[in-house]
Design goal:
The chain is mostly helical. The protein has 47 helices and nine strands. The radius of gyration is 33 Å and the shape is globular.
Length: 850
Amino acid sequence: MSDGAKTPRRPRLVRRPNVAVGPLRDLKNLLYELYLAAQTPTLDAIAAQIAADDALPGAPSRDTIARVLSEAEVPAQQADAVSVAVVLARRAGWDEGDVSSKVRSHWLQARLAARPGQPIRSMTDPFVLEVHRAIEIPAPLTGAKTSTLPTYVARPHDDQLRAVVSTSLAGSSAMAVLVGGSSAGKTRSCWEALQLIPDNWRLWHPIDPDRPEAALEELDQVRSRTVIWLNESQHYLFTPNSPLGEHVAARLRSVLRDPSRAPLLVLGTIWPEYWATLTKPPAKADAPLEPHPQARALLTGRDIAVPDAFSSTDLAILHESASADPRLRQAETFASDGHITQYLAGVPALLERYRTAPPSARALIYAAIDARRVGHGVALPHALLEMAAPGYLTDHQWDQVSDDWLEEALAYTAAPCRGARGPLTRIRPRPGTAPLRQPSYRLSDYLEQYGRVSRRLECPPAELWEAILVSASPDTLIDAAQSAMDRGLLRVAARLGERAAEEGRPDALPLITMLMNPDTQGHKIAQRSRLRNRRTVALPATTVRQRATPSASSELRSVEWTVAQMLKQGRVREAVAWLRDQCTVSEPGTLRLMGNLLHDLNRTEEAHSYWEQATLKGDHHALRRRATALRKAGHMQQAITWLGEHMTPQDSSSAAMCAELLEIAGRTQEAIAWWKQAAASGNQVVIWHVATLLEADDRLDSAVQWLCTAPHTNSVNRRRAADILQRAGRRTDALKVLHDSQLHRDEAQHLESAQRLDEAVEAWKRATLDGDHGAALRTAQLLQKMQRTDEAIGWLRSSAEIGHARDLMRESDLLASAGRLDEANCLKRYGWEPDGSIADSWHISKNAST
């Protein structure tokens, strides 16, 4: 080579990454300068030198070295960055210790300042984001290896989700929460939506150490072009014994409306029951159950319903796709009632494992299902399962189990089902997270939902309640006590409440007070009857004052009558003064009457003051009276706010008024939520109105689901649901809605008319199990008519498990009508035992009640 010739330069294998100002830029610049000073060695040469030096802190592969030098991201491991830097420093003749120290410092600062999440192009594993694994088909049957996930069949909810994604891609922040049952395809739908997101976006999935805590820790650092992945959103927002959920909801609301962070996209999934709880209108401020105002404000209007089953149109599309995917072909052939996604998720094997389980394993699953039914959290402690499971075994079965029965049962329930989780699996905390106090297990989501239906008539045995009493956390004790009280297990509820009070839970006191007060079991009936039947006698004006003695003024109608007589005589000022005196000694209704009188006299400000006092003392009529006055005065929003802040969950009339005002104001989505609360008492007019609103909003599936699952729903509601589907041209779906419940009711009525009473009873029972709430009471009435009182009482006792008997009055009335008054009174006061017998007398200790 001549003297004038230049030595050719080797092309650089690494380019300087384009990084904005900050600690990450300092780190990347240092690494790049090292790379240039080392004469741009090949990645293989760097990897070989690292592999030859065991003293280096890391051992990155060739691809990892390329990412450390080239990508505009913080290296995942500090040790990898240090190892690369030290090797380059040696080749460049730089001080290794100084370089190592600088890289460590820059890496730490960059890590602290990094945006939460990972580049969306790096999210290639759907199972990391909790997409359910699908069934597996052995290779010999297919001739080729199947893809990670089955071919996706888009459904109408996917169109809705794509519209929300498009809103974010256009520059605005948006949120969508897919609402549906377990294994309905919610998470898979979100995964498919991710494929529409450009590569310059990130995905953040906060899970460590705890979901709500992880969300709160980094949410303020989230920046634009980030997908916030909130699969199983209830774990972030529903923390009934902690304020964390409300804090997460409030922070999310703030982030979504911050224009400097737009665009953001929040994707979540949730079960319908959690959605209903979180979006339920708030209760009265001093009620035992706290509301979820932040979660409700965050979620309302952002739901996308995911049907449990494929419609006939969906199945037709599936048929076209099934030719290319053997898993879809198998699901199309064997899935029942359009439950394609559930079949793909391994449900058949799961249910088979459940139904064919040996006695000890089945007892373990029953205990887990019932623990969840009565309010226990997701993590089921080992001690609870060990103590409760024997209660589900007969004496003969218990004698037959081996000494290692628990370990054998846990091994059976943990084995995977066609790639999906087994019925009951061990919860394994991630590295770096706080360890659990004791080994805990999680019940399969789908099996939990299945068990809630299949065991809906089963009262959990005493062993389960005892296990919860001994091993459950204070948070669970309150929920379990309320569940026991709902089932009429008053003694069990009292024990759980006492334990919660001993653990320092102040919210146990209202529950204990309720159990100590006989009035909560219906003993005000006689007093109310006496007031209703009171005969009003017209008195001369001169004797009005004598009639209105302090003892008589405690009866609201007497007070109202007295005031009316004074006003008829023109003694307005005297009536106001006398009624004001009564307000200091009378029931809250008297405060309302005072407000009404002052309002009629145009003393509006004073009237509102008295209505507020009456409302705070629990008078629902005063609550609505003030709302009406505010509305008529043109203060619509103030009336809505007043109702929302002060009504209780049981006050369906106030909920209906709030819903009506919201509907008048054009706020239909919010109105629907309030109408649903108003329907809690089973008001059929309200139930139908909700369905009408949903249908008018083109939410047909939501309307049908509401009619079929609303409180105290009946066959008439099912027929209306079928009419909605029929009008939409969905005849097959309409027939499915009608079939079982209506057939059983028609059959029962026919058999009863033919005096085939034994058969009629069984038909009424079948109608009850199919969701006809009125059939439960009809079954008991027919049994009583046949002189089968004990059986009637036992049936009502069982139906209480599914919400048909909300108190003990029906059972005690049956006993009283049979002349068994002592048993009736004992049942009212002391409730049932878990075995179905009437409880003996019990009491609550003074320490627990103070």
